[in-house]
Amino acid sequence: MNATENVKIKKETKNKIRVDFDRTSAWTRFRLKYLSLRFLGTVIFKLFRLVLLLGVSYVILFPFISKIASSFMDPLDFVDSTVKLIPKNPTLNTYKQIIVENKYVEALINTTILSLLCGLIQTFVCCVIGYGFGKYKFRGHKILFALMLFTMIVPHQTLQLSLFMKFKYFDIFGILGLLGMDTIDLTNTYWPMAILSITGLAFKNGLYIYMMRQFFRGVPDSLEESAYIDGSGTFRTFIQIILPLSVPMMITVFLFAFSWQWTDTFYTGLFFTGRNSILLSKIITIPRTLDVTYAGGNLFSAAIRNTCGLLIIAPLIVIYLFCQRYLIQGIERSGITGE
Amino acid sequence: MSKEKKSTPKQKKAAPTPVATAVPVANAQAALVQGSPVAPQKKRKVVSLDKKKARAGWFFVLPFVIGLILIYLPIIYDSIKLSFNEIIPVRGGGFKLDFVGFANYKEALFDDPDFVTTLTGGLTQLFIDIPAIVIFSLFMAVMLNQKMIGRAAFRAIFFVPVILSTGLMAEIDAANILQENMQSTENMSGAQVENGTTQIVSAMEVSALFETMKVGTGLVQTVTNLVNDVYNIINRSGVQMLIFLAGLQSISPHIYEACSIDGATTWETFWKITFPMISPMILVNTVYTVIDSFTGTTNSVMSFIQGVYDGGSKTVSSAMAWVYFAIVIAVVGIVSAILSAYIFYQRRD
Fold first, then answer.
1. Chain B, 276-295: which have a CB under 8 Å from a chain A CB?
2. Is A303 a member of any domain?
3. Is B275 exposed, middle or buried (0-12, 13-18, 19+ CB in 10 A)?
4. Which residues from A are below 8 Å from B187, CB to CB?
5. What is the ipTM of this complex?
């Protein structure tokens, strides 16, 4: 009742009124807002959260910082007990030797081609397969989906010998054998990875297909129905309506596929056995000119390996800096649910 | 209904040959069995939308079906066959397989001195790690979902491991003595390398602290190990955090609003709203974590099998891998069966 008494309503114009009322005093407002238990709790919680997030961020970033720091260190710094993170005799020699002696540039080009090839194929194929699983109910789709999950669960390490044999003595579905021709040796080429990618069987493709499927299940059916009514066929609808729609999700999948292929050691180790195939995963060796034995030798060789790792992921870091928002947005939009 | 559907492809096959005598015997019999002597040409023109859609569905999943039939299943078959055989090299570069029954499995399980120990050790480690990863990633996702200053930056940092710390980097890190050395307060000379491991929590001090509380040394040991393993756990929970974040985003804000109007505290809101709503995601993430940590290259059992493979006994490693895989399937099955009982689905349709 008090409130209404204090309010003064003045009609200024026809459509406008002005309301004046007494405000609570500044002190009271301050006291109610800030000197309460609830506010104290909020502050403590926020501080706790900040400290926790900073701490975890530190744990995540520290390995990178330490790797970067040690990559600039001279062999002398590793025996100096006063050197922790900041090198006393900074040098670029480690980088120089790795790039020159380990054929970094050649490996970089080869790996870029391989990862781009696999990333692009896997993104498209998983999108197509995911669309099939997400939008169509055909006979046996449940069994097929279960088999898809099965491919995700069986570690490829289990199958490595059979995988290797399959591509070492590659026989196009038994046709070559029928014609009496020899099998083809596909190892040390990009073909094994390309074939695995096209058929959606490569590394973690089950996860990508699952992500795509969940995304397409969230796309309303009415969108396609209206396209059908307008006379567009299934495939035209897919290419002109569905594909543009799924670009954010595809970027996410591409990021995963590209970077996981980039840092992969299993498939490259399995299919690229020759000396001539230089890939990034194979250059983690100590350059001959840097291979010295002295007191800090252990640490120095560890630092060299770390520097190799840094050089390998350097392009990925650049890509991540530009694309990380797509990663998060894509996942958020996918609405992955456990159903 | 189903008979109708079955008969269609067969009719299609018969369609190009309208003269009854020209129909191959098998097809004719099939048509007789189905008992639908409808004129095939009339039926062919009309294809129902459902059937059309089913065909389109098959077309979309075709790449996977081809790969499954022509590459994956033969590989699975080969691998299983291999685990029951012995490779005998033949002069002239080839090899031949000799069936030995369960000898490889016997060697893996009973004769090999390290396999069973590695297996049990690895499994116990995983049973500690998996709940830790799921709980940690849920906790972090809830944190990262709140509005605050620098949220975008924190998110960017938190998902660095997803992209950068996989495969190769994980392998480099696994054998990384330098990093531990830098965190330590000891000097960096080579003498300190062997025992220069730094631990965030010194197990001794914590044990001393809890000894009076009668919690049990085993538990204390587990907890301190977990805390010291935090880097590993953070690195492995990136994808899970992404999935939880996606799940948290899909919870309607109206529910939270209604809760706060009714006077629920944040704590209550979490347990009564967020937790049940996110529970399907907990299942997904647990299964994903199980698969991911069981099949990762840094897993001790996986690397042991890899070592056996590299060591030359390829058939034994194949047998070990299948034993291990059977355990993985069992664990996935048990975990999802247990969790499914407690999962809350918002809509059951």
1. 279-284, 288, 291, 294-295
2. no
3. middle
4. 81-82
5. 0.75
